[in-house]
Amino acid sequence: MTSLFQILMLLLNIVWFIVIAHVIMS
């Protein structure tokens, strides 16, 4: 359960980073 939560948080961080990078580039 803990590993699943860590993977979820990692994916959230990656998505958040992509969104921020996209906003900065635009």
Helix content: over 70%
Q: What's the assembly state of these chains?
A: single chain
Number of domains: 1
* Rg (C-alpha, Å): 11 Å
Question: Strand share of the residues?
Answer: under 5%
Record field, number of beta strands: 0
Short description:
By secondary structure, this protein is an all-alpha fold. The protein has one helix and no strands.
Structural summary, described in words:
This protein is mainly α and 26 residues long. It has one domain (1-26). The protein has 1 helix and no strands. The protein has one helix at 2-25. The longest helix is centred in the middle third of the chain and has 24 residues, at 2-25. The termini are far apart. The chain crosses the membrane at residues 7-25. Keywords: Membrane, Transmembrane, Transmembrane helix.
List keywords for this structure.
single chain, 26 residues, mainly alpha
SSE map:
Elements: H1 2-25
